[in-house]
Amino acid sequence: MTVINTLPEWCLSVPHFSANTKILLFFFLYSVNLRMRVSAGRLVARTHFARESFRRSVNQLVAAGIVTRHAREFKNYGYVYELNAGRLVELGAPNVSEFFKGYKHGLETEN
Question: Considering the entire predicted model, what is its pTM?
Answer without folding.
Answer: 0.83
